Amino acid sequence: MLTLRPNCECCDKNLPPDSTEAFICTFECTFCNTCTETILDFTCPNCSGNLVQRPIRPVSALINNPASTKRVLKAHGCTTIE
Fold it and tell me: Partner of 20 at 20 to 30 A CA spacing, among 8, 38, 57, 64?
């Protein structure tokens, strides 16, 4: 099950579970659409995998399967792919 991380790892933008602006890789690294498109070119800076739009978990499913509250943030942002 996806953890649905609550923020962009680059800019720390909030990405709630119903956000259509969240993108993830196969390791669930999470980025906003702006960072994904303008900085990362749809490539994860952590694993070099592709970034795709994160699916939305229905509200009824969040009751028993809540989204993560653990924020992950790259110390120096995402100015370049590392």
Answer: 64
Q: Which two tokens stand for residue 20?
A: 């259509």
| Structural domains in the chain plus CATH codes | 1-82 (3.30.40)
> Taking Cα atoms as reference points, which of 76, 61, 55 lies closest to residue 12?
76
Tell me the C-alpha distance between 24 and 8, whole Å.
10
Model-level pTM? Answer: 0.90
pLDDT, one tens digit per residue, over 22-31 is: 999 999 999 9
Place of tokens 């119903």: 18
Please count the helices (runs of H) and the strands (runs of E) in the chain: 2, 3
CB 45 within 8 A of CB 78: yes
* CB contact set of 66 (below 8 Å; sequence gap of 6+): none
